[in-house]
Amino acid sequence: MRHKFSIALLLASLAVAGTASAQGRKMTELLAPRDPGPNEAVRLKVVTGPLPFGARLVVKTEQGDVIGSIMTYGVPGPNDTRSETFPVQSRNVVNKRLRVQVLVEAPGAMTRSATPDEIRGLDVMIVPRVQ
């Protein structure tokens, strides 16, 4: 149930006009289960849908720092998905909220915000810090 709620929240945030960054791109606000403790780390799991040929999906913090990216290879099929989990600095989670930009960079095209079809899921996780 929590997973379905997260996806619905994600799709709603991507579909409506979010707070724009200085570059005019949408910010997506994600809820963490709680603020991370001193011995905990934050991870962001990203699941993509099909991306344009040769495209790269880039996830950035509100401050513009790159969290990670996912690159496509070959001709995308209609059911292609990719999944990756990226570390996020704990300072980026404030009051259980993580604000990110999800962008698509494709050869010969302007960088743009990802569409709901290109992002199947974004999930913030709190995990034990590895010493």
The CATH class is identified as Mainly Beta
Residue stretches low in confidence (pLDDT < 50, at least 5 long) are 8-23
Radius of gyration: 15 Å
Number of helices: 1
Major beta sheet summary: 6 strands, antiparallel
What is the average of the pLDDT values?
83
What percentage of residues falls in helices of 4 or more residues? 10-25%
For the record, give the distance between the C-alpha atoms at the N and C termini, rounded to a whole number.
33 Å
Oligomer: single chain
Q: Examine the secondary-structure arrangement and name the CATH architecture.
A: Sandwich
Principal-axis shape equals elongated
- Using the coordinates shown, work out and report the CATH topology: Hemocyanin, Chain: A, domain 2
> Structural class, from secondary structure content?
mainly beta
What is the ordering of alpha helices and beta strands?
HEEEEEEEEE
Strand content: 35-45%
Whole-number count of domains: 1
Structure summary, number of beta strands: 9
